[in-house]
Amino acid sequence: MDYSKLRGRIRERFSTQAAFASALCVSACALSQKLNGKSEWAADEIRKACEILDIEPGELQYYFFCPKS
After folding, report:
1. To the nearest 10°, the Cα dihedral for 59, 67, 38, 61?
2. Which residue from 40, 13, 8, 51 is spatially nearest to 31, judged by alpha carbons?
3. N or C: which end of the chain has fewer CB within 10 A?
4. Angle, vertex CA 68, rays to CA 6 and CA 50, nearest 5
5. For residues 49 and 55, is the Cβ–Cβ distance under 8 A?
6. Given a cut of 80, is residue 6 above it in pLDDT?
7. pTM
8. Mean per-residue pLDDT for 8-36?
């Protein structure tokens, strides 16, 4: 998946991935693995990420389910 839009939103709202990881209650390493496609996002992690990043339900696919070109 292409998480570039998600990475941008994380930078907008938290400045660093580490700060976002902390708010999401996962380690920075775990977040990095998710953003690099090495591990899967759990449904509850996606739900919490949308809540803290202010992503609307209708925008979900653009942040978490966008295939790489």
Report:
1. 10
2. 40
3. C
4. 25
5. yes
6. yes
7. 0.90
8. 96
Residues 6+ away with beta carbon under 8 Å from 21: 27, 28, 30, 31
User: Distance between CA atoms of 8 and 67, rounded to whole angstroms?
Assistant: 16
8-state DSSP, 2: -
Structure tokens at 22: 């902390």
- Quick one: CA dihedral 42, 16, 4, 49, positive or negative? positive
Percent of the chain with pLDDT over 70: 100
29-46 per-position pLDDT tens digit? 999 999 999 999 999 999
The alpha carbons of the chain give a radius of gyration, in whole angstroms, of 11
Q: Two tokens at 69?
A: 């070109």
How far apart, in whole angstroms, are the C-alpha atoms of residue 1 and residue 16?
A: 21
